Amino acid sequence: MKITTDQRYRKALHVCSAELSKEQGENPRAAAQCFFRMGVVLSRLGETGGAIRCFADAFMLRDLSSELVKAQQWRLFHDTQMAVYILGKRNRIISTLAEGDMVHDLIKRRWYELRSEMERSEIPFAGTDLSAWFRTVRIDFPWDMEDVLQEDGTPFDQIQDDILEECVIITH
Fold it and tell me: Does this model's pTM top 0.70?
């Protein structure tokens, strides 16, 4: 009996899960690698919500310098923007660790800019639904030209709010 691609991916997902359970938080880089691999597998299986969560976790863990790791607003912003990036790609996958690190750094830089703008604002920010507000923040992600040239606008403009909302909710 021939093993199908789907069966191979499901086996890989099981192996990644087992490897992750061995880490027990001792090596964040190794755990990040497992999350990244799981994200790739889930993406290829078409399980976009789970893939987004894995990718978001992977690149948060890879940023060992981040003092923001436990900040709840930062995490919500990061996960929302990571979902925007992934959903804006035709293949819904982060191909390399370098690509994910770059996207994470863009999100982090925009977060610091956003916090600075809020602190300098003469009008106090009283937003209660931060997730809705975070979805309106635009980051100039470097999507592949294939993704941009297919339709009018940017991939960000093409994402339907209900799909984004569902994927972001899944990640929390």
Answer: yes
